[in-house]
Amino acid sequence: MSRADVTATGLHAGFSDDDRAAYEELLCDAGYDEWGQQYPAYEIKERVHFRLTAAAEAGEEWAVHVLERDARDGHLRAFRTWDRSLHVVSTRQGDRIVKRAAVVSTRRRDPHGQIYHQGTFIEAMTRAEVEAELTDVWVSAQTVQDRFSTWDRLRMLLDRTGRDVVGEALADVGMTLDEYLMSAPEAAS
What we know:
Layout: H1 3-8, H2 17-31, H3 41-57, H4 61-86, E1 88-93, E2 96-101, E3 103-109, E4 115-121, H5 127-161, H6 166-173, H7 177-182, H8 185-188
Antiparallel strand pairs: 1-2, 3-4
């Protein structure tokens, strides 16, 4: 993810350039070793928390903001997990019975026009909310199809070259990952 992508997602909302750089340096230091290999997720979580706590204790306001934001986000995730585990509905999908949460996050607007999300029981959903959920699921299905297609192309590359590592297979065909994935499937074969 590029810096522009991260900034656009609001990860650095309200940060000065210096604070943004300090936070990104902390994330990089916590997430990657000296050879550029990413640490395991369980280590990153602890490394980020340790470094953020130290920065906050050293008086870095941006670190205090991030810790508070992350704590609130974590509290909301814990609530949603707990809430969805309480409210479950079973649905028949062909010859299978599938259990799913009976609470769905729906988009709402406050009196000032700001969009917010609220858990809504399926029974209380309006037609517009059901249709919005269908659109969201369709977009998600397209994303899954896109991901499947990417991984399938990489598997076919490995099969074709007889390699077990994507980078080695790419070297065999003389392409970078971006070039391979952006080429037409028949041209990459």
